[in-house]
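Q: I'm building a small set of examples for a reading group on sequence design. Run inverse folding on the following structure and report the sequence directly after it, with nothing in between.
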């Protein structure tokens, strides 16, 4: 079996795992929870009154709270798993969004010492036409995968240099997969 759960003292030699975490995202999640609580409180306090403004306020608070809460919890951390066949990136506690990239699609891997949310337009799952796609959960080191189709995929991960070495060691010097 090529999988080992996090927390094992001796990882499987064919699997490399890494993670990056942004604890500041918890503050945004608390803000989202507060928005939801405000919406619920408005709804309960005014259960017997009516009005379009009240309905809009309640729905707006709850919707904003849900968006902020789930948007931030999805990017509290990112997990990177590398085995003999693919690179898998999973975000947040439920692992969504998730992306699997077969190593046959990877032309190379590079270390980026300073991946910043500012250069990608913020935290989260990002796409920029001139830069490619990225999962950015914090500022710092990351891995840049160069794909055979000319695109790139950047992932913030701790110990990114080791990840790059592990990826390069698994790449086969071949032509693009069809």
């Amino acid at each position: 079996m090529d999988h080992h759960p996090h927390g094992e003292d001796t990882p499987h030699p064919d699997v490399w795992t890494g993670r990056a975490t942004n604890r500041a995202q918890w503050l945004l999640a608390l803000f989202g929870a507060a928005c939801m609580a405000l919406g619920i409180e408005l709804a309960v306090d005014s259960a017997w009154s009516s009005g379009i403004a009240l309905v809009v306020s309640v729905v707006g608070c709850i919707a904003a709270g849900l968006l902020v809460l789930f948007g931030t919890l999805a990017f509290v951390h990112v997990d990177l798993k590398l085995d003999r066949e693919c690179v898998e990136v999973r975000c947040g506690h439920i692992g969504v969004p998730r992306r699997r990239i077969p190593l046959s699609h990877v032309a190379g891997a590079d270390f980026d010492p300073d991946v910043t949310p500012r250069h990608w337009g913020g935290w989260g799952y990002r796409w920029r036409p001139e830069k490619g796609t990225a999962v950015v959960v914090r500022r710092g080191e990351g891995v840049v995968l160069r794909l055979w189709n000319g695109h790139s995929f950047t992932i913030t991960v701790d110990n990114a240099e080791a990840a790059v070495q592990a990826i390069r060691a698994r790449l086969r010097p071949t032509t693009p997969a069809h």
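The chain is about 35% helix and 30% strand.
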